[in-house]
Design brief:
heterodimer; A: 117 residues; mainly beta; seven-stranded mixed beta sheet; B: 110 residues; five-stranded antiparallel beta sheet
Chain lengths: 117, 110
């Protein structure tokens, strides 16, 4: 159990366009999901915390108008990269936890490789 | 916010030797410390974790120690095997959001 999927697994888009990435918890309800970004040979950096039914909390330095996060249901969170630029090219990974007060473990999705040309 | 430092950045050992990776954290409110193994292009895999009320935890060849007073924790891998070669990340958690260390590339030479 505790499977998290992401779609798409990779995407190439042109500069100036928008891209939506989906993160789904397949066999559990996730009241909280997290979005991370990982540049090549670097660590994972938390971008935002997404709570079902409320606005996402963004980390310092992350533009909330550029990285739109929606957590509309207990099993789905989406990240939309708006007006993408080459510097947004990265590996985007989501994670989910089962419920507040439950186990601490985060379950990671397989990641989405975004390339902006 | 939380800051996690990880050393060394690269570690090369001979098969069968032990490997130790160390991390320090800044926020004494952190209460959960997982370790992840990540292979190229893949998701991080949890290999062991420890809560702040525990000083040591072991799972077969892998162990983690936590010193809350000094705010540091370490990963110990014994009897290393070539398949242990990967990038390892430590992390610290406050209210569930994870702050990751910078990573250690472990190479186990056969």
């Amino acid at each position: 159990g505790a499977v998290v999927s992401q779609h798409p697994s990779w995407v190439i888009c042109k500069s100036g366009t928008s891209v939506k990435i989906e993160c789904r918890s397949l066999d559990f309800q996730a009241t909280t999901m997290f979005w991370y970004r990982q540049f090549p040979k670097q660590s994972l950096m938390l971008m935002a915390t997404s709570n079902e039914g409320s606005k996402a909390t963004y980390e310092q330095g992350v533009e909330k108008d550029k990285f739109l996060i929606n957590h509309a249901s207990l099993t789905l969170s989406t990240l939309t990269v708006t007006s993408a630029h080459p510097e947004d090219s990265s590996f985007y990974i989501c994670s989910a936890i089962r419920a507040p007060g439950g186990p601490y473990e985060q379950y990671f999705g397989p990641g989405t490789r975004l390339t902006v040309t | 916010g939380e800051n996690v430092e990880q050393h060394p950045s690269t570690l090369s050992v001979q098969e069968g030797d032990s490997a130790v990776i160390k991390c320090t954290y800044s926020d004494s409110a952190s209460n959960y410390f997982p370790w992840y193994k990540q292979e190229l292009g893949k998701r991080p895999q949890l290999i062991i974790d420890i809560r702040s009320n525990v000083g040591e935890k072991k799972d077969q060849r892998i162990a983690v120690t936590l010193n809350k007073t000094a705010k540091h924790f370490s990963l110990h891998i014994t009897e290393t095997q070539p398949e242990d070669s990967a990038v390892y990340f430590c992390a610290a958690s406050i209210r569930r959001a994870l702050t990751f260390g910078s990573g250690t590339r472990l190479q186990v030479q056969p």
